[in-house]
Structure formats: structure tokens, C-alpha cells
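In this section we walk through a basic example: taking a raw amino acid sequence and producing a predicted 3D structure, encoded as C-alpha cells. The instruction is simple. Fold the sequence below.
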Amino acid sequence: MTNELGTLLRQLRTRAGLTQEQLAELSKVSVRTIRRLESGRLSSPQLTTVNLLAEALGVNAEEQRQLTGILVPGQTRPATGAEEPATEPPIRRPAPPTPEADVPTVPRPPELSSSASTLDAAAWLAREVGRRLQREVEQHRLQDPYLLPVRWQPALPELMDLPENIQRLQPEATASCLNLSGDVRNVVDTYRSIPSGRLVILGRAGSGKTILAIRFVLGLLSAQASPAPVPVIFSIGSWDPTTTTLHDHLTDRLLRDHPHLARQVSSGSTLAAELVGDRLILPVLDGFDELAQGLRGPALQELNTTDLPLVLTSRPDEYAQTVRAAHTPLASAAGIELTDLTVEDLTAYLPRTDPPAARSSDSSVWQDVLAQLDTGGTEASTRLAQVLRTPLMIILARTMYSEKPGRNPAELLDTARFPTTNDIEEHLLAGFVPALYRRRAPERDSTGRTQRTWDPDRAQRWLGYLAHSLTQDAHDQQDLAWWKLGIPPRASTRALHVAAVSALCMAMATWTVELLALSVVLGSTAPRIVLLDGALVGLLTGTAFGIAYCVLNMFSPTTLAPSRVRLRLPAAGRRVKGRSARTFTARFGAMMLGGSVLGAGHAWVIALLRSLSYGIPLSDAELIKDAFVNMLVFGLLFGLSSALVFGILAVLEAPLDIAAAATPTRLLSVNRTTATQQLLVLAPMITLTIALTGYVVTNLPQEPLGPLPWPLQSAFLIGTIGGLGGSASYTLAFTAWGRWVSLSRVWLPLTGKLPWHTVAFLEDAHHRGVLRQAGAVYQFRHIRLQQHLARSYHHQHVDRTPDGARRTREDRPAAGGPARR
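The resulting C-alpha cell sequence is shown next.
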């Protein structure tokens, strides 16, 4: 049995072009288990393990039955062929697998002119997008018990372009009537009836725009039988059209969510840029209304400079205001507007969400509420019907009352407690998170592991901090990226963080190396001298790192982003590519500047130590001359050493594998591995470079005012301190993963703003349905939930007077200032 399973598994993996390590990364099954399965040494594999591997390989229904048929008697057995060699097959581009429902692929079109690598990348991207969105549908139970009937009607004529432009007609042709009414089941047909391929979806908050976008992408992918652009959802709330073109924004988002698309093609650009440039991407731009008010006009203007087929979602008021101000709608675009759900929809849906106890008693917990809504005529029923007309509010109400025993939804009809519709909505928003975290029985995730239990009050506070952190920019953001958690908004504070982390790393390296050296050489230690030396080195070196950060930020102000590369030894005879040479040059210049500043700071460390050790005043002329000479020597020494080491590191960098397609946790794991590899490479290289260069330079014939000669032991001692401290400082202060460790894993948990197990908490919040996954980042399930949590956190933890008392509503300014919507 196990030999047949191993043979079939190896054949499927070979067909997909995956190594055992890549399959382990995709399926979350250990490499050891996969090797034992393929070799037949695993006698009783779990069915869950086989299902995870099948899902990662993207097998069709027949192959799934063959795999499980080996474990479950009576099912179809696979017809296995000859055993393949045990050697690992080379990585090659996979042929597009057979399309399935909601897990689609794009076959390679023979008539297109795009390169084979670009078409293969599009096929991989289509498959990955379908898998991710299908997981989101299952994760948020959008089809449990069935998908709510999101319907639409044609948008107002002034919000659409002329019918002749939408249908791409010649001057002598006559426009036909487009059918722009329907529901979520025929969204693909509606889109395909628009010749221009440009559609605007309008809907009030919570009306189901994102749900419709997800169903559109899944439906279009599963229905594609011929080559077509890959539909991808892009959140555009953070797009600045005044500085970034649409092409560049789409490319950046593809690179963020799919790092393997950073591979270069023959033209010199990345796969992501080629996919966008060759129109192999159909952008679904979600959240036009989330753009800052001053950016909506430029965004519409930028969208009108291209005839690229696209789908745009927005709230009606924000889009209408932009169209009126610009005196033009989205060019060649049709428009639809989502309609409200009816009482009949509620009557059909809510009773099917009843808890088991209510189902057994044949009396729905919603019976009294639905009866009053059906009868109508009262103020309470009218108000509640207005609230429960969007999928968002229905999901919130279901979570609070259908999934939590003992709660009676009839309280929503209490006009004294909820005098307005806004009071009911705020009540549902406030009760959503506690209801999710107060479930008694621990649930299991998709891998069968029991969910971690979190205190509801603490979970609400942590989620509130995450939501509040997204309001610290000029306008509310939606992307909850792990590499941006806890980042100070001001550059001066970020420089202080760099200085503090670098000072601690250099001090720890100095203390460790000198204590070990003294204990080995002298057989004893001098704690006072070592502590003073380490503190001074850390203080002045941290200051130098902070200054270097300010200087680099002044010339090139960039935000740390996750690494898109891994380290790999170059193959024998392989030439250095142009991109590696350019990266080497840029890295050499930047690190030459930073290392020179660090070396100059180290010269003053030596001067200060001489002053304290021998009682020489700092104003002594000879001491100052020595310090300036050492500044030149150590600046050149540290600058050349750092530039050379980091330049060589750039040559060792290679694009990520296809298996590194980014989820938040997977991207974090990949960056942790890359940062660890960089640390292991940098530490010995910097140590040897500083030691050997310093030994040679200081022992050359020189003037009496030159630096003191270094014995070989002292050279390696200083080199080891610089290697360990410098590489640790770079890793923790100048990489996205290092800053994540220092802020999100240490500082924020120490201050109580996040739990110690931050990754587990984010994954659990995603599993419970508070967060959704959008590529490499998380987002709150809805912007209204995010805004509610941010307001609550601001009111409870931020908006206080200096004496600690909360301000009254009259004294408190609006949260987020005037930029908040």
C-alpha cells in the first residue's frame, strides 16, 4: 500500500515541478514525512496528511480519489508505473494542471507572443490566486449555509460612460442595451457582456462589494477555458497616484504578495512587471473610497489614462463626488450598484443559522424578530430592517445570537436601548469580537490542531491596538503588515530605535568577547573595565549607527520591506549578472558611507577610553590629533570592510523559489531564514576583514601620531567585536525581520500592546474571522469593524488627560484628527 502511495505521490510531485522541500513548504507537512511516504517507510500515513499533500499539488478529483483509495479500501486504486529514481528531479516550470471548480489555472496560449516563462508564471499565479480565495471563502464561512443573495441594478447614467464608449463602437454603429441587472450567481456573465471589460461596482458600507469581487475572481478563473488575463484583487487604499503609476502599483503589490515574481526575464524587468505590461493581469481594484479624499481625483485621472480592462469597487457617494469634481466617470466603464437585502432574504437565511438546540425544538431564535419584521409598521421593526439589509450586519447578528447560546435577538427591537439605527450597528460591531472569543469549546483549524484560547478582554485590546495603529498615517490604512507593526511614524524616533538596538548589540558583543578573552588569557576577569568598555562602545557606536541611518534616510528615504531574495552560493562558471553588478555597486557605496561614520565614531571611543584610563583631559591637543588621525584610518578601514562584505553578499543573493508565494506567516518564515543566513555570513566575513585590514594598516610604517600598532590577537579581538556586533546590529535594525523581532516580539509585548505569541494570535484572529488574508498582509474583515475597534482603543487607552482621567465627550477631539473619515 505504502509503495503504491509513494510512487503516485512522487509522480504527482515530479509533474508539478516541485522538490520535496518546496512541497513541504506549500503543504505544511514536514520534509521527513514526505521522504518516508515516497520511500514507503511510513507504514500508516494519516488521511489528513495525504489530503494536505494533494491540496498542495493541486490534483484533480480523479487523482484525489486515487490517493485516498490506497488508504480507504473500496475506492479507485491508481495504476502505477515503474518506480522512478530516488534522486531529486530538477526544478522546472510546471505544465498548467487541469482546471477545477474554484481552483483554476490558465493554460499556455500558443497564439500569444509572451515568453514561455511569463505564461508559466501567469498559470502559477492563477492557480495560487484561486487557492487563496477559496481558502478565504471557507475560512469566513461565506457559503455556510449558503451565499447571501447579493443583487445589483444599473448605476446612475451620470456615473457611467456613454454606451458607445462602453461597447467600443465605431461612429456609424448603434449601441445596444446592456443587461446590468443580476445577482452573485451570474456576475461573470454580466462582466463578459461588457465589451470594454471595465466595470465599476458601487455599494454602501457592508453591502457585499468584497464578497462579490471574490466570487467574480473565482467564477472567472473556473470558467476560463481559453487563455485570458488572471484576475487579481488589489486593495488600493494605500495607493498614491500622484507619485506611483497604476502599472507600478500593481507590480509592487504582485512582488509583495508573490516574491518569486521578482525573477528577471530576458528584457531585464521582473516577471511581475512583464505580467502587468503584457496585460496578463485583470486588476480588481477594491476600495476606491478608501483612498484619501485628495487622492481620488488623481486616481480617477490615472485610471483614465489607460484602457486596461479592470473592475473597480467603491461606495456610491465617494465615487459620485469624484466623478462630479472631475466632470467625467471612469472611461469606457459600465456601472452597477448593489441593492439591499429584503425581509424575505432574512426569513430564508437566519433560521438556517440557528444553534442545534433551537433546531431540535423546531423554534428558531429569530422567530419573534422575523415575525415583527414581516409584519412591519412599528418603529422598532423598521429600524431593525434598515440595519439588517447588508451582508455585514447579518453576519454580525448571526455571530452574536445564532452562534452564542442564551442570547435573544429580540433585544434588538428595544427602542429605549437602541434609539437609532447607528446604536444597533454599534452594538453589533461591539459584540462581534467578544462573541468570537467567548466560545466555550475550543475549535480545530484546517490542520486538525486545537485553537489557542485567548482572554476576550485582552484579545479585544490587542485587536484595538492593531486597528488604532492603522490610523496613524495621513489617512486610514487597511493592510496589516507584520513588518510595519510598531514602527514609529517620525524619522527621528526610528533613528533613535536604530541607535538603541545597535548600542545594545555592540555592548553585548563587547562584553561577551572581552570577558571570554580575559578569562582565557589572564585566567580571571576585570568586570569593571569590561562593563565600562562595553557601555562606551555601545553608546558611541549606537550614536554612529543612528547618524548613519539619518544620513542614508536623507539621501534615500525608504521603508524597510520584506526581503525578496535568498542566499545561494554561485555555481561554478556562472557569470555575474548585470543586476548583481548594479546591486554590488549600490550596496558598496551605501555601506562605504555607513561604515565610515561607524569608524569615525569608533575613533572617539578609543580617545575617550584613553582619557579615562590615563587621566588625559579630552582637551589635550595630542589626544585630539590622535583622534582625528584615527577617524581617517578607522573610517577608511570600517568603510572598505563593510562595503566589500555587503557587496559580496549582494552577489550571493538569488530570487525566492515558487514555494515562497507569500502568506503573512510564510513570508515571515522566509525572511527569518534569509536574515539568519545573512547573519551567519556577515559575522565571520566582517570579523576577518576588520582584523586583517586593521592588522596590516596599523603595522605599516607611519608617523608618531598614527594609530597604535595592533598585535594579531588584538586585531582579531577587535574584528570579532565588530563582526558580531555589526552583523547583529544590521540584522536587527536594518532588516524587516529584525525590526519585527525588536518591536513586535519584544517591545510591544512588554508594553502590553500585543501578546508574546504575536504570530499565533494573528493566525487565530484570521481563523476566527476577525481578520482576512490579502496576499502577504492581513486586513480586518471590514473597514467598519476596523474603525470601531480603533475608536474604542483610542477612547480607552489613548484619549486621556495628563492626570490619567478620561476626557468627557465634549472635551475629546475626534479620533485621528481631521484626516479621519
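Looking at the output, two observations stand out. The two ends are 62 Å apart (CA to CA). The chain has a mean pLDDT of 78. In the next section we compare this with other chains.
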